[in-house]
Amino acid sequence: MRADTIFALSTAPGRAGVALIRVSGPESGAALKALAGSVPPPRHAHLCDLFDTETKESLDQGLVLWFPGPKSFTGEDVAEFHIHGGRATVESVLEALARVPGLRPAEPGEFTRRAFETGRLDLAQVEGLADLIDAETAAQRKQALRQMEGGLSDLVGAWRKVLVGLMAQVAADIDFPDEDDVPGGLTAKARPGITGLRAELEEQLAKGEKARRLRRGLEVAILGAPNAGKSSLLNALAGREAAIVSAQAGTTRDVVEVHMDLAGYPVTLADTAGLRETAEEIESEGIRRALARAADADLRLVLFDAQLPPDEIAKREVREGDIVVISKADLNKDTPAEFLRVSTATGEGLAALEARLADEVVARAGLSETPAITRARHRRALEDAIAALHRAETQEEAELCGEDLRLAARALERILGKVDVEDLLDVIFSEFCIGK
Asked: From first to last of its 436 residues, what are the pLDDT tens digits of the chain?
């Protein structure tokens, strides 16, 4: 338990109806007595006047709450001041708290770090909380909330429990090979369990790609020849004038991005330079960037102008899984029926295209029924565990098999922050805002 006490504004700065100031540490009760005159009953909101600790001037009237440790967010004694959200009011209360002996302003993420250090949250839950704060769509919120509530932690804990059982079998084979009540060949008997656990981890690792896409958002690139209608389509899907539309070919030189919420999933639409042969230096660079962005995209829309024969360069770029769109459909009704027809001028086909996009997004980043591997750190730890289990399957010596099982368990413990994470903690918690 830390000896110092921290405080910070835990709601967004600026003018608001209500602001929350949180205090955590051994002097939290003293802070309540200094400003509110007394410590209220635990977990009961108490309406009172707040006073300056030096001048005794009335600062505000608000609610105070008392959460004695360890039953608090941080596991320490915690006090909360719910006050009016004017800037002057917030500043006056923060200044009064700064004058209470033993209190200091909190660093970014310090409340959550204390929750981790006291065992209230493991590292996977901490990362889920960070994702919840950053969530921009409903699907991201649901995935982050599941992780913050311990879904991934429970799954990893279940895997580790299986590993401990397998390790016990192998250890018995090593330590008691001649005991009458210990059946022989326990290491060999453990191998089917090792194989089954490895297969389960590999399946979870494969599912993790969808969760990773959901966490970062999907990239959708729009490709096509100059004047195929890419910028107009981007504007129509975005619902605003995000890209310049011009009859002059080559208007779009760099990638134009629009971030949007599509069926509850985060999507970045990228309008790219028109594909054509050109000797012009700037346009050539734009085309290079367009192709590079398309190569990295999760999904691609390839546009063909309904008034013109299919562009040969654009045709060469069509890949399996791409959505082929016939643009300017109002100007020519005689186009292949198997492709989506849209017109940004009349709105024809836009609803159908949005529905198709939503289906594709859900297929590529749909919310899983089980907890998911969302971060590169989790993925590396799972890969290490799988590699160790694979070695354990083929080890002839029980001692070597047991060591590989121990390494697999250690890799899983890294996900929860139980081992080998000291170098990560400062980075992870620095991503939080002050007050959380």
From this structure: 567 999 999 998 888 899 999 999 999 999 999 999 999 999 999 999 999 988 889 999 999 999 999 999 999 999 999 999 999 999 999 999 999 999 999 999 999 999 999 999 999 999 999 899 888 888 889 888 999 999 999 999 999 999 988 888 888 777 655 554 444 466 778 889 999 999 999 999 888 888 888 888 888 888 888 888 888 888 888 887 755 554 455 455 567 888 888 888 888 888 887 777 776 777 777 777 878 887 888 888 888 888 888 878 788 878 888 888 888 888 888 777 778 898 888 988 899 989 998 888 888 887 777 787 888 899 999 999 999 999 999 888 888 998 999 999 999 999 998 866 565 567 667 766 777 7
Sheet with 265-271, edge to edge strand ranges = 256-262, 265-271, 218-224, 299-305, 323-327, 340-341
**What backbone phi and psi angles, to 5 degrees, belong to 6?**
-115, 155
Token pair 């399946």 is at which residue? 203
- What is the Cβ-side half-sphere exposure of residue 208, based on CA atoms within 13 angstroms? 19
Burial (CB < 10 A; 0-12, 13-18, 19+), residue 279, is exposed
Q: At what angle do helices 376-394 and 186-216 cross, to 10 degrees?
A: 160
Residue closest to 1 by CA, chosen among 38, 36, 27? 27
Q: Which 8-state DSSP code applies to residue 362?
A: H
Helices (H), 118-240: 123-134, 138-148, 151-175, 186-216, 230-238
List all residues 6 or more positions away from 413 whose beta carbon is below 8 Å from its beta carbon.
160, 419
The CA radius of gyration of the chain, in Å to the nearest whole number, is: 29
Using N-to-C axis directions, what is the helix angle for 123-134 and 138-148, rounded to 10°? 160
Residue 262 and residue 293 in contact, taking contact as beta carbons nearer than 8 Å: no
Q: Which residue has the tokens 């289990």?
A: 389
| Coil, strand or helix at 218 | strand
